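B., you asked whether I could sanity-check this one before it goes into the benchmark set. Here's the sequence:
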Amino acid sequence: MRSKHKEMLLFVLITICNLWILVGQKTYFVSLEGNDDNTGLSQRASWRTISYAASSKSPIKPGDTVYIKAGNYGNENVVFEKGGRAKKQITFEGYLSIPGDNPQLDWEYGDNLNPMKMPLLDGGDRSQGIGIALYDKKYINIKNVQITNYEIGLHALKSRNIRLNNIVAMFFGDVHEEYHGKGIAFGSNNKKNMGSHNKIENCIVYNACAEGLSIYGDYHHVNNCRIYSDDNSTGLNSSMDYYIHIGGNNNIVENSYVERIGDLKHGGHGIDIKRNCQNNIIRNCIAKNMRLNGYELRHRGVKYNLIENCKAINCGYTIRDGASYNTIRNCTAEGAASSVLFFDTTEDEGAQYAGRYNTFENCVFRNSKENVIKFFHHNPATLSIVDNNVFVNCVFDGGEYLINADRENIDNKMINSIVTNVENYSRSIFFSIRPLAVNFDFEYTNFWNNGFDAPKGKSVTTFDPHFVDIQNGDYHLKETSPCIGIGIPTKAPDFDFDGDVRNKERIDLGPYIFKNTNESREN
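And here's what the prediction gave me:
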């Protein structure tokens, strides 16, 4: 009986606590018809400015929600001077006509902003000001807001557990400056300004001069965001440099899309990991039309990162300035000038090595315009080596040259792979008088229909691989393929491109296992 009384007492106490929390939470309102002298406690008594609601002058407390009605709020500089707590987050949420109606701008490339659907902050001058600022703040949710014409759309420094959802940001930075303007920026490369555990979902940035979406710090999560740049009308510096930029550890960027549109002045870094960054994951993303790189791993501190299930369209994958021990898995590159590019610069304490111990697994490199793999020479001061990188269970289809050896390279390998329709084996443009050697090991790799003889190597073959539909990029193997079961299990990925388990007793070449292989072997 006493036990039951204790349980009942505990239940009553929990219920009272929950009711107390609910009673303590309040809802406030902002609209263009409001006045900051109002109580803000109803739509009729709403405040006029978002800036007031976020300031220390307003009565909002942790756990409160501020609903912001659609409309053009003009040149406000919203500075959050209060923060929430883990179980009492502060929420600022835009609405169309009924609080909580979760409006969707449904913005697609080419659309304008529409203040009739969601609240809009318009700074009026993209060379100065910040739309929304969160400095050293925690547990704040911002949802359903449009931002345009500031130097920086949303800026968060030293902030944690911030949640952004459905933020649409356009036109940031002075086009006359070399590197100026950011769309959504969390932290900076100064360690004192870095935050952590922030989440950015369903957000769009269009035409920020320097950085579209940047996250510095640890344990950030970016999901389903889109970044575009086509701003070259001035012929100056208005095109974007970094589309999604990562500087920190244990961050995740997934289901996101970046696109460079037109002949812009800046070549563009699509999704970039730079400086001291480890254990980051980029997955299920698409980078399109970047002249510099679709995905970039940059600097000697960039290690143990994973790029997985990603596509590069008219661009490729760059490893530079010593990035090492990274994995690129189940990825594709279509129509790149160079599908995989290695090089070194005088950045990051000068040239030492360009990149080593990086692994490409189950990847497809298709229709390379020039080089499939390029060891790029940058300048005479950076003649460091590219070494110990591995391509395993990959397909290389098309290209003018399989390897461009304008940099010293040793102990790089290709295993269980298929090379087809490549015109030439190698070249060394910069060192054309005394070309550098290609020190590349080929093991259990098949060469078919290339413009060169198969290089020497261990178990190198020259079969027609019998792809299902090579013209349309289907590199699954037909039942008649001689590439079935002739690979080696060493370094072979546990799963194929489709996520099917590999039978390690006999390995098929290329990124896909033959679908009936496991069933037939079990029988």
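One thing to flag: The mean pLDDT is 92. Otherwise nothing jumped out at me.
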